[in-house]
Structure formats: C-alpha cells, structure tokens
Write a structure and sequence with these properties.
Length: 299
C-alpha cells in the first residue's frame, strides 16, 4: 500500500496556467499580524467564503445547519463544534458559482474537513472564504492560485476545480483550516481565535496521521504556534506524528510570491513527499502541543 501511495506523488509535467485571485491579505506578509475586525457584520445577516481548522472526518455531502448570526460563540466552542459538523449540501451544478445572496448568507458558516482515506499531506488554511462557506468547498474560487500551483508543483496531474474533491483525496491530500468559520476579511479573526484552533487541529492530525502538515500562510502559523521567526519551508518541530512545512498563502494578494515562486516552494514540499521515508521519525524533532490553556509547548 505504501508503494502505491508513493507512486501517486511522482511529478507530472508542468503546464502554464495563468491564475490570480483576491481573497485575504492580512496573512501574506511575513511579519504581518492580524488586526481586530474594524467593521463586524451586522446582526442577523450572513456572509461566507483557510491557514486554519477543521470540521468532520469526511466530506460526505450531507446537510449542515448554517449559523448566520453575526456574533459567533467563543472561539474554543466554535472550533470544537465545527469538528463534528457534517458536509454541506452541494449545488446541483457543483461547478456553478454561488450568487451574491448565497455568499452573503454564508457568513459564519463552517466548511467540513476534507479527509483522504490515507492522508499524505494535510493542507491547513487560515479560515474559509465566503465562497467556500456558500459552496462547502475549500478554496472555492476556481481562480485561487492554489489550483494551478498544486498542478505545476506535481501534486495533481492537471489543474483541478475546487469541487473535484475525489481527485484530491485519491492522491492523499486532505484540507482543513485553523479557524472553521467563513469570513469576508481576515481582519475578522483575532489572535486568540487562531490559537484556539491549534488544539482541534492537533487532534485531527493525531487521528488521521498525515506525513506532513502544510500551513498555507506564515502569519497564522507564527501566531498560532508562537513561532514569530518561522520562515517558509520545513520546520524543525513536528505536530504529533507529522512533519511541519510552512508555505506562502496562495492568495493573489500575496505580492511577495508570484506564480512561479509559489510553484517552486510548493514543489519543494512535493519533493520531500516523494522522497523515501518522508515521514519524520518520532522523537527526531521537538513536538508542538497546545494545552487547554492555550500554551504551546515542546515535547
């Protein structure tokens, strides 16, 4: 089985696919910090579209209740409840874009974890965008640079649509977020909410045992794990049984990385995944763990 899984990670020829997307910009600069939300959503209105946490073990397509209240419950409760949420019902045309009304109605909804039968790489975003909240797909905007980058870096044989979840999971790719709720802007999430997502993420990692956890965004990782000097690439610590790889946010607003730069650094992770014995040996590196009080410690 291991040999079959490793064959899935053989590189495929590059294909030039122009793509840009504007989503969240607060996590793009290496030394950026999150601001408190300047304009919270009005009460009883929704909105919708993650460097951040999860929901359920599988993306089954079942219905889940939307939470459209502008004032969300405490972060720890929100993330814990999201861990057990079911998958959102897919639109009849999975490739269709949601209407403006659907997007606005999805503020604060959660997007379930996408979990492969056998996870090789767990991609961890910051939190879902409004379009993700409306559709139930991670990185739901087809123009998000993640999709051409995954292809050109060798993870997928072609550029996928966000709805092609089976194509991802069949290659051992799972997706989660540090913060489960969908927002219109990254500044609607504060530092405490990001840190509250580390515990549920750790639980997920220990349950599905990926080889690598790849964080898509420097600032969210630095805040969540209190690693202010972390740089792109392989990190010296592990998260449970998994190695940690820090990657730039693929958002089109991340001017520090153009498409070729993203392909290069994501390709470095692909090379590590493809190498023999890519999983870090337990005990060979410090292990990050977060206590219930929110303190991150090295084990």
């Amino acid at each position: 089985m291991a040999a079959d899984r490793d064959r899935r990670w053989q590189a495929v020829p590059d294909r030039t696919i122009p793509a840009m997307e504007a989503q969240k910009d607060m996590f793009d600069a290496e030394d950026s910090r999150l601001r408190p939300a300047a304009h919270p959503a009005p009460a009883n209105t929704g909105a919708a579209d993650a460097s951040a946490a999860d929901a359920s073990a599988t993306d089954t397509g079942g219905a889940t209740t939307r939470n459209t209240a502008a004032k969300a419950p405490p972060a720890a409760t929100r993330n814990s409840a999201a861990q057990n949420a079911g998958a959102r019902t897919r639109p009849a045309d999975a490739r269709g874009r949601p209407s403006r009304e659907q997007v606005l109605a999805a503020h604060g909804t959660t997007v379930p974890n996408l979990v492969a039968p056998e996870t090789v790489v767990l991609l961890c975003g910051i939190n879902p965008s409004l379009e993700s909240g409306a559709t139930g797909f991670h990185f739901a905007n087809p123009s998000n640079r993640l999709w051409p980058v995954l292809h050109q870096a060798g993870f997928t044989p072609r550029r996928l649509h966000p709805s092609e979840t089976d194509e991802l999971t069949s290659r051992g790719i799972s997706i989660t977020s540090l913060v489960m709720r969908a927002t219109a802007r990254a500044d609607e999430i504060d530092d405490d909410e990001i840190r509250a997502g580390v515990g549920p993420l750790t639980d997920l990692v220990e349950r599905i045992s990926p080889r690598w956890v790849a964080f898509l965004g420097l600032a969210a990782y630095r805040i969540g794990f209190r690693r202010r000097t972390a740089r792109v690439g392989h990190q010296p610590e592990t998260l449970g049984p998994a190695g940690i790889w820090l990657l730039p946010n693929p958002s089109g607003l991340n001017a520090h990385y153009q498409l070729p730069d993203l392909v290069r650094v994501y390709g470095e992770l692909h090379a590590a995944v493809s190498a023999p014995r890519a999983r870090p040996v337990t005990g060979s590196a410090s292990t990050l763990r977060q206590s219930h009080e929110g303190t991150v410690t090295l084990l």
